Amino acid sequence: MNILEAVFTGITQGAMIALVALGYTMVYGVLKLINFAHSEVFMMAAYFGLVFLSLLIGDVSAVNGIVSPEAASSTFAGVFGALRGHPLAAAAAATVLAMLAASALGIGVERVAYKPLRGRGKGALVRVTPLVTALGMSVLLQNLAQLLFTARFRPYPQVLSGEVQVPGLGAITSSRALILGASIIVMIGLELIVKRTWFGKAMRALSANEEAARLMGVRTSRVISMTFALGSSLAALGAVLFCLDQSQVYPTMGVVIGTRAFVAAVLGGIGSITGAMLGGLLIGIIGELVKLTDYSGGVDVLVFLVLILVLLVRPAGLLGSTRTEKV
Amino acid sequence: MRVAHPTRASLALADGAPLLELTDVKVSYGGIKALKGVDLRVFPGEIVAMIGANGAGKTTTLKSIMGLVPLAGGAVKLAGRPLAQDTTEQRVAEGISLAPEGRAIFPNLTVLENLELGAYLHRDAKAMKETLEDVTELFPRLGERMKQEGGTLSGGEQQMLAIGRALMARPRLLLLDEPSLGIAPKLVQQIFRAIAEIARSGVTILLVEQNTRIALSTSQRAYVLRTGEIALEGDAKELASNPEIQAAYLGG
User: Fold this and answer.
1) Which of A115, A134, A299, B201 is placed for a possible disulfide with B1 were both Cys, Cβ 3.0 to 4.6 Å?
2) Helix, strand, coil proportions of chain B in percent (round to 5)?
3) d(Cα B198, Cα B209) in Å, to the nearest integer?
4) What homologous superfamily does CATH list for B19-249?
5) Chain A closest-CA separation from residue B42 CA (Å)
6) pLDDT tens by residue, A207-240
7) C-alpha A45: how far from its chain's center?
8) What are the residues whose beta carbons fall under 8 Å from the beta carbon of A246, sequence distance 6 or more?
9) Nearest to A211 among B104, B113, B166 (CB)
């Protein structure tokens, strides 16, 4: 495996990390809160995707114990049977459904764990209390997943096989090509949403000054809900793509990817959307390059080393805002 | 100038009835009483000034009108209707806009985006374009800096942006919190000329100021706020010649 290939694999890996990192950074932007439950929304989304995909392709062996074969062929067959025999369409539909379900979960987490605390408490507690409920929510979701889906590792049905030829790189697996393509499209789309739409402007206004945003007539609680929905659906996209490519699903998978994504968001400058994308790509590439050496077990060591070094030089991260408001 | 909202400007208001009325408004922060019962009326077409020292409760009064602080007592009415149940967003929709203390523009958004956000509640492209033209006519400097980020503007330009952004909502009632604060004297003159012009276009203005001289010369009526209570009120010119006011706020 040469360096160029490693970089390319790193980019696909990084794109997936970036999709998750965006959720951290957007929520931090509007609420100044580290949503520790985000990694578990990612994990739950992987399960949602698995269940939907299994039902859509009509093969429920991977969700043994969650959905019985009888239910799949009777109750759900009417709704989910239409795409059987079209694995690609089924994968796309499962992704969209998982994104919707994850959005609902993200909004739910915000309503239950953060919204009731907003504007209450004093001084440092205003920031600390939601942080503690975030951690609590994270543990709760992880345990809920164990309860619902058991702790066993479940492989995704391999619906994407084969390879595509990329000039200059040779053959790459079609799932990697899909990750890369989908990530690029989504990130461009996200830039457009944030820069051009009223929702995006309201989100940026809210992130700069909540009270001033309300004075413009922005319904802040709605913008916050939509931010959670958007961030969670991006994490869901990352989760399904990741699992289609390489992974099994298990209840603690969020910890591994979530930590890297969080590091990516901080590395790029938390609150900065472009920063999260950049941070994700960097971490992905670093990870793959380390695998070329004899120290392949030390990926996380190096990732955190890079994080510490960057923060020592630029405390706000690579693209973080260091502007102080003029008064 | 067409900044006054056409439908709102013509909204029925009985002759002689105030557009804004505060009766016995009380606000507390924790145990501290910031407003101890403020009575205040603003009639359509007026510029009313509210002067007073730091900490007298001027900003709190404006925040209570916008619903940004909860009332401990009393009532705020717009055109005779109590606003108690309305959120800040609804009050903006009903035609009250505030250019807040410290300007609070969005520093990472361009000047144009800042102004567009002012029109967040009515996004009709044609009306927005018209109001934008009016605002740039009022403040030509903003027109020259549309693509610049708000944070790069000078203090005076940021104040213009804050007022322009408030006007984009086409308010009936414009609340201004210390528009002269920390701004070069030359720009202060310019901003107050613009305020007078906004009032001529039919927007009613409640102006909070520490710069008593310019506040009293721009307004028709004024209230003097002292430790959370109205200490004096009356015709702006009379207040300006009041010895007590001259000693306390006009430097003798």
Assistant:
1) B201
2) 40, 25, 35
3) 17
4) P-loop containing nucleotide triphosphate hydrolases (3.40.50.300)
5) 20
6) 999 999 999 999 999 999 999 999 999 999 999 9
7) 9
8) A175
9) B104
